[in-house]
Write a structure and sequence with these properties.
Elements (H helix, E strand, L loop, with lengths): L1 H20 L4 H12 L9 H5 L1 H17 L4 H14 L2 H18 L3 H11 L4 H13 L8 H27 L6 H32 L4 H22 L7 H15 L1 H28 L3 H29 L7 H10 L5 H6 L2 H4 L5 H30 L8 H10 L7 E4 L5 E13 L10 E10 L12 E7 L9 E4 L2
Antiparallel strand pairs: 1-2, 1-5, 2-3, 3-4
Helix pairs in contact: 1-2, 1-13, 2-13, 4-8, 4-12, 4-13, 5-9, 6-7, 6-14, 7-9, 7-18, 8-9, 8-18, 9-10, 10-11, 10-12, 11-12, 11-13, 12-13, 14-15, 14-18, 15-18
């Protein structure tokens, strides 16, 4: 398995660098590498790696969903919530209906089998969409209208909605008695329980992090560990009560960000570094699941079905955003952002075949083909359209976050030590301001973010803020924090 990990890292990184050089999403290169080194093409991936592939992909998906949670702000969610709810269901319904109508004719399968196929193809891939939306959010692209946040939230609920429909249709095929009303009622129940089971441990973690000043890696690992337990809880509760654990994972980050922004940003910064490796695992292993020979069997008919489904989905997506203040180009971006398919199709594409569905092999072939076609094209479309269409706010708050990460600044409540004198100080205040650097030589003229940090020396007084204090300004044009200080942890 160690050799397989080495292949993932070496070839995945090489593909990432190569594709980024040509201004294309690196994840497309990773997907292609996975297809090539996987067991269905060259076969370089060891069998034991493929056996644990699902677990590795799940952990990688947890990392990116946690990052998403640490980017979700209440005011933005409130602004885009209604649109996100509509967009989480309407596009999928349009796509399923279109595939139901045409698949029996092109693929010679029954209407119910076509419905099962539609419910598999209708799921958007959070693994592809979420990382790209986070990248836009961190750069303030589309922040004014909250477009990336809306797509991020909608894509997560979309999966819950589609998987519930898939379960209903598959149960109907097997002749089992399916209470459709109860199953559909399970969608809001699943969403609500998923959020609740995430908010509770998230709040407890926030309290724990306030009491104990652990090093950021320990905090991050604990958050990931709790998130994995949430995914396990969904599996245990399956068949008893539905729980959307993916939403629970994001809720952990959301509540910590709401309660203590300083701690949230520290953990988010560590998750961003961890994502470098997790991204390689996720996309290379997703690619390795793709059986090219199976996809080939779908042929032209499979491509036609996928295309018709995407056209219907695009109509549903466009209708979903009609009531917003988005421009025509921004609505087009939303349509393209809802194209990629990968995660769900790789996970449940073979389930109908295993369940004895007569058209199971055809369904699997089309599902695999949809990954090969839509994941790269969707990712490239998001990147190419997002840059010119999404408006970038010059004075966005995300620029302060970038400044903190670049300079690795401490947050309020953290203790620091002077490298020169060895004295211990505590951060008691911070202030974000915009400064004009037009007179600074060598920097682009205009407003740039700066953070004023106030230090207090505990030895000088028992009351915080009393006694000896001092204040420094940090920006891209000022001296580095770590040239003079180091952060202390328990």
């Amino acid at each position: 398995m160690a050799v397989s990990l080495a292949l993932i890292v070496v070839f995945g990184l090489a593909a990432d660098i190569l594709f980024r050089k040509f201004k294309l999403p690196g994840l497309v290169g990773m997907l292609i590498v996975g297809v090539l080194v996987g067991p269905y093409v060259v076969g370089l991936m060891r069998p034991e790696m493929m056996q644990v592939s699902a677990d590795f992909r799940k952990i990688a998906l947890i990392v990116i969903l946690l990052r998403a949670g640490f980017e979700l702000r209440r005011d933005t969610l409130r602004r885009v919530g209604k649109t996100a709810i509509i967009m989480s269901a309407l596009p999928a319904i349009f796509e399923i209906a279109a595939i139901m109508a045409v698949a029996p004719y092109f693929l010679k399968i029954s209407l119910l089998e076509a419905t099962i196929l539609g419910s598999i193809l209708a799921a958007v891939s959070p693994a592809v969409v979420v990382p790209l939306m986070i990248d836009f959010m961190e750069r303030g692209k589309g922040a004014k209208k909250g477009i990336p946040t809306m797509i991020l939230a909608a894509s997560s609920v979309d999966d819950v909605f589609v998987i519930v429909l898939f379960t209903i249709f598959l149960g109907m095929y097997g002749g089992h008695k399916v209470n459709i009303a109860w199953q559909l009622a399970g969608i809001p129940i699943s969403v609500a329980l998923g959020i609740i089971v995430g908010l509770i441990p998230g709040y407890l973690l926030y309290k724990l992090f306030l009491k104990y000043d652990w090093q950021p890696p320990r905090r991050t690992l604990l958050v990931i560990g709790i998130s994995i337990c949430l995914m396990w809880l969904e599996e245990v509760a399956h068949g008893v009560v539905p729980i959307a654990s993916l939403l629970g994972v994001m809720a952990i980050g959301f509540i910590i960000l709401e309660k203590e922004e300083a701690i949230a940003h520290i953990i988010s910064q560590k998750l961003k570094k961890l994502w470098v490796f997790a991204e390689l695992l996720l996309f290379v292993l997703v690619g390795a699941q793709v059986n090219v020979s199976v996809a080939w069997k779908a042929g032209a008919a499979g491509l036609i079905i996928i295309f018709i489904g995407l056209v219907a989905r695009s109509i549903g997506t466009y209708i979903s955003v009609l009531g917003t203040d988005y421009t025509r180009k921004e609505r087009l971006f939303c349509v393209v952002a809802y194209v990629p398919k990968a995660t769900v199709q790789a996970a449940i594409g073979a389930v109908p075949l295993e369940a004895g569905v007569a058209g199971g092999e055809v369904i699997l072939a089309v599902a695999v083909l949809s990954i090969l076609v839509t994941a790269p094209l969707g990712a490239i479309g998001i990147m190419l359209l997002g840059e010119p269409i999404l408006e970038e706010e010059k004075l966005t708050s995300y620029r302060f976050k970038t400044l903190r990460e670049k300079l690795q600044l401490p947050r309020v409540g953290e203790r620091i030590r002077s490298k020169k004198h060895g004295t211990i100080w505590k951060i008691i205040e911070e202030k974000e301001v915009w400064i004009d650097v037009s007179e600074e030589e060598g920097f682009e003229p205009g407003p740039t973010p700066a953070i004023y940090i106030r230090y207090w020396k505990p030895e000088s007084s028992a009351v915080p803020g009393r006694g000896k204090t001092m204040e420094y300004r940090y920006s891209f044009v000022d001296s580095s924090f770590h040239a003079n200080w180091e952060i202390l942890y328990d």
